[in-house]
Write a structure and sequence with these properties.
Length: 235
């Protein structure tokens, strides 16, 4: 990880890897996962734009791309723009064209701000001229984002755009069980369905609660049963 990332206080979630992202074969999200792997491994796509509703896994995919770049010993910088919107963008974006990969999360948080739009436009041009990779995510696609700077609007449409699909309830249950197995937890269908039916359907919330259950299960040496889940989560 490069020094700038450390100085910003930005860290990656250890669980946010490609391997931990639930994307059943032959689904659009599986195709997106494959495209991201290929982008970082072969640099075949200089610019990828991901968009989707909150909780669909955008941050997971972007941080997964950073983890994947790290395993390939490629340099990268991850920007959670929701947390960095108060910074001066020109200072944040210094010398980024020297890196292999630049990742911008929550682009919509800084759109419609002149200093950010101009800085983003200049960053796109520098990365393109240097032949480096750019990965961006927002809650809206590039055509729908309310961008004021026409040149930036056109730049955002240069890349390959993917819509990250939100999982339905059955898929969310399967994703929760998939994540539990990765942690070495046994989460049967009955208990998983109980959790899905009683918690907000946002996957970030579900995974956070699974983390709580994991720690409690380890501390108390208990299996994940409905009474235990009810006790720990207050359901």
């Amino acid at each position: 990880m490069n020094p700038q990332q450390l100085s910003l206080g930005v860290s990656l979630n250890d669980d946010a890897t490609f391997e931990n992202f639930y994307a059943p074969a032959a689904t659009p999200n599986a195709q997106i996962l494959a495209a991201l792997r290929l982008q970082i491994t072969t640099a075949n796509e200089p610019f990828i734009f991901l968009w989707g509703a909150a909780g669909c896994g955008l941050t997971h995919l972007l941080q997964g791309a950073c983890h994947h770049a790290q395993t390939l010993q490629k340099s990268f910088q991850y920007f959670p723009l929701r947390d960095l919107a108060g910074y001066a963008p020109d200072e944040l974006f210094i010398d980024l064209e020297e890196l292999d990969l630049v990742v911008l999360d929550a682009l919509d948080e800084v759109i419609n701000r002149p200093e950010w739009e101009l800085a983003l436009f200049n960053l796109f041009n520098r990365l393109r001229d240097a032949g480096k990779l750019l990965l961006v995510a927002a809650v809206q696609g590039p055509q729908a984002l309310p961008v004021n700077l026409p040149d930036l609007k056109s730049r955002l449409q240069w890349g390959t755009t993917f819509h990250v699909h939100t999982l339905d309830d059955d898929q969310k249950q399967a994703a929760l069980q998939f994540r539990a197995r990765a942690r070495g937890l046994e989460l049967n269908d009955e208990v998983a369905a109980y959790i899905i039916q009683r918690l907000p359907r946002d996957m970030n919330e579900l995974f956070w609660q699974l983390n709580r259950l994991d720690h409690a299960s380890l501390a108390e040496q208990r299996k994940l049963t409905i009474p235990f889940v009810k006790k720990i989560l207050g359901l």
